[in-house]
Amino acid sequence: MTAEQTKQYTEQMAVITAVLLLTAVVVIKCTSGMCYVEVSCLVINLEHMDCTWKQDCRLQLNYTFQSRLGSRPPFRDCPQYLREGGYNVGCRLPYKINDKFSSLHTRLSGDNNVTKEQTIQMKERVKLKPPLNLSVVVNSTNLELWLYWNTSTKSTCTESEVRYRKQDDQWHSAIIQMSATSHSIPFIFQNHQYELQVRTRVSHFCGESMFWSDWSAPIFYHVPGKRNATGKRS
After folding, report:
1. pTM score, two decimals?
2. Which of 16, 60, 84, 197 has its CB 3.0 to 4.6 Å from that of 215, i.e. a possible disulfide?
3. DSSP H/E element including 52
4. Whole domain around residue 84: which residue ranges?
């Protein structure tokens, strides 16, 4: 091998070694708990708090979670982990009335104790369960449809949104005032089927949430047609 060939070989090996070292550093960072991970928390139906996290690494890490509410020391270990595929992917925390008005401080630790801390404002992060027990009453005299429902929490602190459509038409929606659990739809069409749903959230009077509940299960109602001279509906 000539001196020139030896020089080229040495330079090539140096490049390969540098690439391998860089790859090793990236893998070490990932396996040592330094993956990017973000914690997201929700108050579920004013019953408990669920904090979940996702990571951007291909390699799975088992995180440990601690939290404290407001200025209450110290950090406490997670009382109930949410698991998926054998890994911790979240934590369920107890909830007491008005806890949502305090900041939630979270601490997430990787396998090598690399720690990520966050402060989350919980007031706007309340998600209620969908309304239930939907029912319909129709006034055949003035063709007005009334929709009724129940909420899963105190109705005095919620506002609702109703959406409805006839057949496969476009949805129409309306925001319902606080504490109301009914809504009227005037001038409905006879001999048509209506589909109706409701969702709800904490109103601004009780610290408005940015999260609506999921839509309720739909209720379907077919408005009968007029009776003709023979007594049959058209």
Report:
1. 0.75
2. 197
3. strand 48-55
4. 37-126
